[in-house]
Each structure stands twice: as C-alpha cells, then as structure tokens.
Give the backbone structure.
Amino acid sequence: MDQKTAFNSDSKELPVAPRPVFPAPSAAGSSAPLFRTPLACITLNHGDRIRFINLPEPDVAALRGVVQSTWPKGIQKIAPYGQAQELKLGGWPWRRTLAGFDDSRRLLIRLLETLHDRGWVLHGAIDLSKKEHDTDTLVFRHQSPPPPSSDWLVVSVDDYDKLRIVSSPPPDLAAAVIGCFGPAVKRHQMDNSHLEIKFHGYPFCPSGTDEVNAGVMLLALLGTLEAFGFTLYANFVHTWGERPTDVLVLHRQKGWAPGMPIWHK
C-alpha cells in the first residue's frame, strides 16, 4: 500500500498536519553575525480572544494591562495556547453588533499605540485563518529606538450609508471631514466617543458608476486627514459577523502642527 495517508473526500475530518519545525537561519559561508529583525504577531479569535505570538513577556504584560484598563468587561482568563499566550475577554469585542463598536475600537487603538511606543511597528495584516470567527493576523516588526509617539484615529464604514471615526477628532478636523463630502452628507453627530456621518443614498453599497464615487469619497477623506497630519498606518478586518468590518487606522506624530513633516510608515 502506498505509504501516503489516504484522504477520503467524503469525510468531514481533515488530516492533522505535524507541527512545523523552523530551523534557526544561519549565514552560510560567512562568519559575520546575521542581522535579524524581531518579529511578532497578534491574532483576534473567536470574537472574544487575543493571542500574542513571539512577544517578549514585558510587552505582553503591558498589553494585558491595557486590556484590563480599557475594555469595560475586562479579562476572564489568561492561559498558554500552543506557542502563544491567549487572553479571553469578557463579552464579544470582535463580533459585529448593531450597538456599535466604540469600546472595541478604543481597545484596538490602545493596543496598537502601546506596541508602537514600545517599538513594535505594524508590518502587515493577512487573513491566515479561514475560520468564520477569526479576523486578520497582525504582523509586527521591532525597531530601536521606538518611533515618536502618535495620536490615533480609527475610521470605518459601519453600514451602507454611515462612516464613523473613533475617537472623536478635534472640532476643526471634524468640520473639515464633514465638509469634504459636501452635499452628500445627510446628517452627522459627534460626542466624546466618535464622529458619525450619515450620507444620502447608499454610497457603500454602490452599483454602476457609483462604485467610482465611493473611491472618490475615500480619497477625499484621506486627503483631508493628511492635511491635518494624519497618515494611514494600517487597514485590516477588525470584527466578524454577517458583514465583517474593515477599519482604517491613522496616526500623526504628537505635537504635529501645519507645516511640519508627516511621518509615513
């Protein structure tokens, strides 16, 4: 019989792959020390969990403190999960709900800010898990010294006709963002947690040439934010549900003023 394991396509059980072993890289034929950038990743799983992979314990401890102080329902459980440390949070921070996601997005901002201030810069995001309740894997690289501290915003399209910015932008920036969309704005509201803009029609469920208009709106928004020093840091899937939610994360150097350079990642 062939030594390869047979796989029955009618079976619902998938073959279990052996755990991969990653050999340490070596500088073949060279005695020079090998330069390696420290890398780590974070995953948001099952609607209520965060997994830290390859982060040093002092950084993980700092992130645990951020979760405990920022997420209203706190941490229910901390435990190893394979080669990761997993936090199980109270409630469902990564599940899409009609009630809004401000607390979840504030937590996201604080996690990214803490990592950034400790030298962990987002390197990219990728959909590694095709499970229904998982979101993108966030990959970070470490740099020393850390980059300058930043102010942070999260932008999302929350429905076919709504755009939200968390946390609330300064009044002058909020007015500029609302103004950049002109008569397309039906109404808006702003409080201490967010700015929400509701548009006429359904610009984020477009058809025909309206698909182009949605792109024009995005460019107008990014251009307006950059005029106030905010540049795009990352975009990734943040929550799962019937319509998974992508977010744009933007930042600007603290103390930025018009005329100062903008630090792109």
Remarks:
- Residues 1-17 have pLDDT under 50 and may be disordered.
